[in-house]
Amino acid sequence: MKRSTFALGSLIFASVILLGACSEGNSDSTKNAESVSSESSHNEHEGMDHSGSAEVPEGLREAEKPAYPPGSKAQINADHMPGMNGAEAMIIGAYQTTAYSLSYTSSTTGEKVQNHKWVIYEELKDPPKKGVKPGSEVTVNADHSDGMSGAKAQVEFSEETTVYMVDYTDTDNGEDVTNHKWVTESELSATP
Fold it and tell me: What mean pLDDT is predicted for residues 88-106?
């Protein structure tokens, strides 16, 4: 009887310890999830694919005389995502188009993304020939971030400009970002 009581007591004690550890782990997981959720609400570009392929959309025209020709360097003056502002960019490509700031709901997370910069005219599904006005609804045919491709989006504003595909090193974590799409001409300046 003493052995049974001792064994049962040991089993209960071990269970309490194990459950406490699991509970503590879940608490940390919950805190981490809350932290990620909180960061997501502050960073509309969470899940954005910083690097991409060098492929460009069909019909996109190379800029004739860009301020920053391919192979040159420039400083990025934009904060589309952490680690971008102030980074030195290597210009990979320069293209003449219209760039759009869009708001949409992610098809994977259901989260609202406000003022995503930039999606270009050639990345919209069946856009009108004369361009798209602010307030119009469009379908996105780009996958800069998870849940973007195929999403219905509202055009916030647009800019006829030269857009650049760039490589840069993230100033926060030191990671190399390649073929990032897109940075507009007004978001670049000569390197110091």
Answer: 97
**pTM as predicted:** 0.74
Average pLDDT, the chain: 80
76 neighbors 84 (Cβ within 8 angstroms): yes
- Which distant-in-sequence residues (6+ apart) come within 8 Å of 108 by Cβ? 146, 147
Q: Which CATH architecture has domain 61-189?
A: Roll (2.30)
d(CA 108, CA 105): 9
DSSP 8-state symbol, 97: E
Amino acid letter, 10: S
Q: Are 149 and 60 in contact (CB under 8 A)?
A: no
pLDDT of residue 145: 85
According to DSSP, the residues that pair with 112 across neighbouring strands are 105
Residue 121 and residue 107 in contact, taking contact as beta carbons nearer than 8 Å: no
pLDDT digit string, tens, across residues 172-186:
999 999 999 999 999
Give domain limits for the chain. 61-189
